[in-house]
Amino acid sequence: MLIRCYDCGETQDDRAYSCMCGGLLEVVQDFKGLDAEELKMRFRHRLSERMSPYASGVWRYKELIHPELPDGEIVTKREGNTGLYAPEVVRRSLGIRKVWLKAQSENPSGSFKDNGMTVAVSHGRYRGYRRFTCTSTGNTSSSLAMYAAWAECESVVLVPNERVSINKVLQTLAYGAKVVGFDGTYDEGIRFYERYGSELGLYICNSINPFRIEGQKSIVYEIAQSLDWELPDWIVIPGGALSNVTALGKGLEDLFQLGLIERMPRVALIQAEGASPFHRMMSLGEQQLTAFESPSTIASAMNIGNPPSWKKARDFLTRHGGVTCSVTDEEIMAAKTLIDRSGIGCEPASAATVAGLRKLLADKTIDREETAACILTGNLLKDTEALKHTYRSELSEWDRGGLAMPMKLTPERVLGRLGSADAFNPIS
Ligand SMILES: *Cc1c(COP(=O)(O)O)cnc(C)c1O
Ligand SMILES: [Zn+2]
Q: Where does the Tryptophan synthase beta chain-like PALP domain lie (predicted)?
């Protein structure tokens, strides 16, 4: 595979982690000889695969992701193949013509990180690595730990002690990864790899791993295929390290270049206010990112002050009329309640999409007659701590530590909890 530096254009070895100049790497695909109609047919046929690697919602698109990898080298857990839903309660609450939610939360380890990690681990193992590493706000480490276990390899992950959901740390440990905690934020983990990465002899699977980006492109391929190759007007995505919006942009440009779609949708990138250096840069029209020294948001998956992929994200959004927006933790949690009660559910970072869409509709950046797809990046069970505040009164009755008065079960108490037949309205 051809790997090139995004900054200086230098060609790199496909095991490289970053360029000598400090720039990010990217995979340069060669789509010569690929025909749109033929691809559509091939992708459709593969929807009926059950056992081969093509049953995966990532490897179904192998020609556009990692065409050179021998099929026998693929490490897959049938990731992708996630639901694209259009819940009416969410649509009504937002007051938009149509809204889809792409539930990446349905991935095997519970987040979209699986879409990229299957490709990074497959590639690393193919190139001879048996030991893998990353730093993470939680989901990347869970995903890496899962694939490393599945490939019978080892993994060691660096997890900041601050603001990482305990569910994700436990999930990572359960898959057998070694966890190294450290004081500070995700950004310090990234700096560690910049300094010592090449000495470690481990395959580094951080968000800047170019093969992860290739795998994450499949999210938008799947949305396009589900909608018969006609995308909605907007795609709304949360941003922390900005790898996912980078992959979304690259995937969209692939689809357009190949003639698989005829019209580019616009992209809205949403950050949490307490960790929004990229939104600040874009809204001020600046060309350089100024990091947030102490990022802070309940949406721990995007609690990142110095997003590594900001240049790629900036360039894509600038080329195609993308917008950015930031939302408060309160707005995120309100949107999460709505998504949870629609029956889909997600972790806080994912809910930033619906919160952001609401804001962009209110300020008329997005028209109510337009259509949108929001990418729900992680599963509801990924962060149960975040729910404790929302449901504190319910929890206080259930978990009283043996104090207070006894509570007997009666039909009155059970039915009384439901309220009148039509009073329940989750979207008010
Ligand atoms: C990683 C992650 C994000 C942020 O994605 P980036 O690629 O870091 O911008 C958002 N939500 C969830 C659930 C995540 O795990
Ligand atoms: Zn370079």
A: 76-378
Rounded to whole angstroms, the Cα distance separating 178 from 202 reads 13
Ion ligand 2 contact residues with beta carbon within 5 A: 5, 7-8, 10, 19, 21, 23
| Distance of CA 320 from the midpoint of ligand 2 (Å) | 25
Asked if residues 189 and 164 have their Cβ atoms less than 8 Å apart, the reply is no
38 alpha carbon – ligand 1 mean position (Å): 33
pLDDT digits (tens, 9 = 90+) for 77-109: 999 999 999 999 999 999 999 999 999 999 999
The identity of residue 18, as a single letter, is S
**Ligand 1 atom nearest residue 243's Cα:** 7
Q: H helices of 289-410, where?
A: 310-319, 329-341, 348-362, 385-390, 392-398
d(C-alpha 17, C-alpha 208), whole Å: 8
Type of residue found at 11: T
Tell me the CA–centroid distance for residue 307 and ligand 2, in Å. 18
Cβ neighbours of residue 365 closer than 8 Å, sequence gap 6 or more: 268, 323, 325
Q: How far apart are CA 126 and CA 355, in angstroms?
A: 41
40-125-255 Cα angle (round to 5)? 20
Alpha helices in 157-232 (DSSP H): 166-174, 186-200, 210-216, 218-226
Task: Return the structure tokens found at 346.
Answer: 């997600």
Candidates 314, 317, 325, 313; CA nearest to 360 is 325
Q: How many CA atoms lie within 13 A of 400 on its CB side?
A: 10
Mutual orientation of helices 139-150 and 166-174 as an angle, nearest 10°? Answer: 10
Does residue 426 have a pLDDT over 80?
no
Element (H, E) at 154: strand 154-160
Which tens digit of pLDDT belongs to each residue from 254-310? Answer: 999 999 999 999 999 999 999 999 999 999 999 999 999 999 999 999 999 999 999
Q: Is the pLDDT higher at 38 or at 186?
A: 38
Tokens 């990864």 locate to 177
Q: Where are the domains of the chain?
A: 1-30, 391-423
Q: Indicate which atom in ligand 1 lies nearest the CA of residue 216.
A: 7
CA 198, CA 92: separation in Å to the nearest integer?
A: 51
- What letter represents residue 371's amino acid? T
